[in-house]
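SECTION: protein entry
WANTED: fold as tokens:
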Amino acid sequence: MHYYKISSSRLGLVPGLFIACAALAIFVTDIKAQAPSQIIQLSTRMQVGVGDQVGIGGFIVTGTAPKQVIVRGIGPSLAQSGIIDAMADPVLELHGPAGFATVTNDNWRDTQQTQIQGAGLPPTNNLEPAIWATLSPGAYTTILRGKNNTAGTALVEIYDLTAAPNSKLGNLSTRAFVGDNQNIAIAGIIVSAGVGLDQVVVRGLGPSLSALGVSNALANPALELRDHNGSLLVSNNDWQDNTVQAQQITAAGLALTNSIDSALLALLPAGHYTALLFGANNGTGNGLVEVYDLGATP
């Protein structure tokens, strides 16, 4: 796991804030150079509470072929990177479509140790959970909570072990409590080397969650997209601020229902990226960060 220090006067963050960009040097994917570029890993660092403030992430496997993935919940090892309130003992659940048997894991060595080590993705702390699964195309949900109703900062990660044009991670959405300073929600994205630039839309929802019954919704979400060096690539407060981008997002079928929600579109070469969801004017509340892979440019 690599962490990159960035500073942002807009966020008012203290110097030396560690931003999680999930990337393992030992993670190798078998992707042919002529294949289109696509997202091969998605992650979100968040504040995980109890009750309705547990970490909830959804992702979609698109295409026609089954996909092998590993889902991990990282907590105690974050303390080595300066996270002072890292979750001590996370528990992970994977839910799927009708007919899918829910999978739960507390400590990654409890089950599937051979598969997880074979993929080169064992967590560094034995208290961290991980799930290896072969998933048919469809929508899936991860729930990350603290054992015995504990809270703290944690990271949920989804790795694509069988990236291919006919099957990909098309979307990740994570609902989490968005705090201030270093307690904002952070999504990590890895784009594979391949043909073309990958078209990615990132959305940050707050006000529209109230209509869905979510209490204490983030009143005015804002987004930033940064590269692996922490350099700002694009930012957005209200999704219709940029007329051209708003038209592109609408054309992709991803228009937002509330003008105060945020969204941005980017064409990304291979590499590691982070999307930061925070409240404008240091606002806090429950928010939703979403990443959509629209496919590679020709």
